[in-house]
């Protein structure tokens, strides 16, 4: 008798309640609800800021012809922010997964140093006319092609070699980036102050750097590459387990990594050639997205990351423009916040 | 059956593993034993195709490891490494669920969920299935990893030191789980063990590795002798009769 009463609670504990046992990335109803609430808040914020950027402070009455014309002009920058948010967020999340490192940003591969080197050498060798010669659709395409081409060479060479390994690839990427940076700095020293002034404006990532003429190339590139990555979500999930577990589960680790890195380089090159360097935006967005989503599944992370990216960009512009009247410094603020988060994460984790 | 023919692997100029010729029979538990640095992990990772070999061939159930598509091999052989670190925060159930990837490609069906539940129950992790891995003790985590490879439902299972981090009780439990997996589920299990007494007690075959070569292969009765163990481990070993069979005493 006594034995039965003791045994029963244990037995009840052991047989799980009749709820269905599932393995989804959001295992409990609470986690699911939380995720959808986060997503809803981000969507509201994103539409709010987008609408604010389009309509706020529009001198003409709502609905009039002039109102729409002004809104249309502003729509360009909103579109640019959307492209940059998709590119940076998708690229950073995927890059972190491919390299199995959560505190890394794809700009480490030297995209930005390359962009800076291209811009600087244009003005160094050809003067201000050189910079002008760098604007235009063909030049945009060329810049993207050069960045993608060089990073492919690097990945291909380093990952297929006998000593092919990610760490070495990253290290060489950093070294090349550093080298290009020093060359650029050296050339910048020799510029006339006025040329330097013109150049500096181009070297801060800024939505106003973007030219709507680039859209016919930038938008398809961004859409195709990010959709391709989103469709690989399930494979990316496996990649987070690391090389050995990935191979054990039947994926070809090297070719998966190569495909991901190629798509990442497309996105990074597009974003960088469009608006200039944004070193910490992607990192900031990916870190926040993992906090917000409460799930490690890429199908959940990607939408949250992209929306967060857009909210951060659009929100920063909206506030800077309408509260502080200083929209030129937006990227600096974002980089400052992103850099601080970066430091905070490193210090808190205490490791790389 | 796993067949290694003239398998060699060199690390730089100094360390060479092999050449190894070995046949591991189907069914039961085969224990790989030997001193540190003998080459057990190297052999196991080569069988599990995580590392290429410089020379020779490995066949698992008739499939050549080097030339068979990785996605097909994933349904024949699964391997658990000596150390595992994941960057994402996963629950036990999510981790075990990854074991279904070779079949589901990430789209879990009801059948997958049932298999996952079975693997979790098999290793007695039912109460812990929604815990995050970083909320588990080392031993519980080790069991979760083993559940993941069992969930892969491969006939051949390779485990590198699954008793790492386990206390006396859980080491015994783990070996019983593996024994059950071998007998009830019909798996062929190859496991690297450091405690020779565990090998003697639970393994059906023992393979002794030393300096990159297979020096002994046989049933526990053949391997568990003073002479063989002393030679393999370079330590004075005395084998005495215990209550449940031979016991090696070496301290
Ligand atoms: N990546 C590597 N580079 C160079 N040498 C290596 C590498 N991995 C292993 N070795 C060497 O190969 C030999 C076999 O290593 P292995 O890991 O297979 O040993 P083990 O039998 O598993 O040892 P343990 O019992 O300590 O796990 C060792 O001498 C080791 O130093
Ligand atoms: Mg080892």
From TrEMBL, chain A:
Entry keywords, A to Z: Cell membrane, Membrane, Transmembrane, Transmembrane helix, Transport
Stated family: Belongs to the binding-protein-dependent transport system permease family. FecCD subfamily.
SUPFAM superfamilies associated with the record: ABC transporter involved in vitamin B12 uptake, BtuC
Superkingdom of this protein's organism: Bacteria
Coiled coil: none
Pfam families associated with the record: FecCD
TM region positions: 35-55, 75-93, 114-134, 140-159, 166-187, 214-231, 260-289, 301-319, 324-347
Alphabetical list of InterPro entries matching this protein: ABC_BtuC-like, ABC_transptr_permease_BtuC
Span list, region Disordered: 1-26
Protein name from the UniProt record: Iron chelate uptake ABC transporter family permease subunit
Topology with respect to the bilayer: Multi-pass membrane protein
Predominant localisation class: membrane
Compartments (UniProt record): Cell membrane
From TrEMBL, chain B:
Residue intervals of the ABC transporter domain: 2-236
Topology relative to the membrane: Peripheral membrane protein
Superkingdom of source: Bacteria
Pfam families xrefs: ABC_tran
Principal location class: membrane
Gene3D superfamilies, alphabetized: P-loop containing nucleotide triphosphate hydrolases
GO molecular function, one term: ATP binding
Signal peptide positions (record): none
Keyword Ion transport attributed: yes
Keywords: ATP-binding, Cell membrane, Ion transport, Iron, Iron transport, Membrane, Nucleotide-binding, Transport
Subcellular location field: Cell membrane
Name of the protein described by the UniProt record: ATP-binding cassette domain-containing protein
Species for this entry: Occultella gossypii
């Amino acid at each position: 008798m006594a034995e039965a009463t003791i045994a029963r609670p244990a037995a009840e504990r052991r047989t799980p309640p009749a709820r269905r046992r599932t393995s989804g990335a959001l295992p409990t109803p609470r986690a699911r609800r939380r995720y959808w609430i986060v997503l809803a808040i981000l969507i509201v914020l994103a539409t709010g800021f987008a609408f604010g950027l389009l309509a706020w402070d529009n001198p003409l009455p709502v609905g009039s012809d002039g109102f729409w014309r002004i809104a249309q002009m502003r729509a360009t920058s909103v579109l640019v922010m959307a492209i940059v948010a998709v590119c940076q967020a998708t690229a950073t999340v995927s890059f972190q997964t491919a390299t199995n490192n959560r505190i890394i940003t794809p700009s480490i591969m030297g995209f930005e140093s390359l962009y800076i080197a291209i811009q600087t050498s244009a003005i160094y060798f050809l003067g201000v006319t050189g910079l002008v010669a760098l604007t235009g659709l063909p030049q945009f395409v060329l810049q993207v092609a050069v960045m993608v081409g060089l990073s492919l060479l690097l990945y291909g060479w380093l990952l297929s070699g006998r000593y092919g390994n990610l760490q070495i690839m990253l290290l060489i990427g950093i070294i090349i980036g550093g080298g290009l940076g020093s060359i650029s700095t050296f050339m910048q020293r020799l510029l006339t102050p006025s040329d330097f002034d013109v150049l500096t404006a181009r070297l801060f990532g800024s939505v106003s750097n973007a030219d709507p003429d680039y859209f016919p190339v930038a938008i398809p590139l961004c859409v195709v590459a990010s959709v391709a990555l989103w469709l690989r979500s399930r494979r990316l999930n496996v990649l987070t387990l690391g090389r050995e577990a990935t191979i054990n589960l039947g994926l070809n680790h090297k070719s998966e990594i190569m495909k991901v890195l190629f798509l990442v380089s497309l996105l990074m090159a597009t974003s960088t050639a469009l608006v200039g360097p944004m070193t910490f935006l992607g990192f900031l967005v990916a870190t926040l997205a993992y906090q917000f989503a409460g799930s490690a599944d890429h199908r959940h992370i990607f939408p949250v990351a992209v929306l967060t990216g857009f909210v951060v960009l659009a929100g920063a512009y909206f506030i800077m423009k309408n509260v502080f009247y200083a929209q030129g410094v937006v990227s600096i603020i974002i980089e400052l916040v992103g850099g601080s988060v970066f430091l905070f994460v490193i210090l808190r984790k205490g490791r790389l | 059956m796993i067949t290694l023919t003239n398998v060699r692997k060199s690390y730089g100029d100094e360390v060479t593993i092999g050449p190894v010729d070995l046949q591991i029979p189907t069914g039961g538990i085969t224990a790989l034993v030997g001193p540190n640095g003998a080459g057990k992990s190297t052999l196991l990772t080569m069988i599990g195709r995580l590392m290429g070999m410089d020379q020779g061939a490995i066949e698992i159930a008739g499939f050549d490891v080097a030339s068979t598509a990785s996605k097909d091999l994933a349904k024949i052989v699964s391997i658990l490494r000596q150390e595992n670190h994941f960057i994402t925060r996963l629950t036990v159930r999510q981790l075990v669920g990854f074991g279904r990837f070779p079949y589901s490609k990430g789209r879990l069906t009801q059948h997958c969920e049932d298999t996952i539940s079975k693997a979790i129950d098999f290793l007695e992790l039912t109460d812990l299935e929604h815990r995050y891995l970083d909320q588990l003790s080392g031993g519980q985590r080790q069991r979760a990893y083993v559940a993941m490879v069992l969930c892969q439902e491969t006939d051949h299972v390779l485990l590198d030191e699954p008793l790492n981090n386990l206390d006396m009780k859980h080491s015994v439990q783990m070996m019983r789980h593996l024994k059950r997996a071998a007998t009830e589920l019909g798996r062929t299990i190859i496991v690297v063990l450091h405690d020779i007494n565990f090998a003697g007690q639970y393994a059906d075959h023992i393979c002794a590795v030393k300096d990159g070569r297979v020096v002994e292969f046989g049933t526990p009765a053949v391997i568990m002798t003073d002479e063989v163990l002393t030679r393999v481990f370079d330590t004075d070993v005395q084998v005495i009769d215990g209550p449940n069979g031979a016991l090696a005493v070496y301290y």
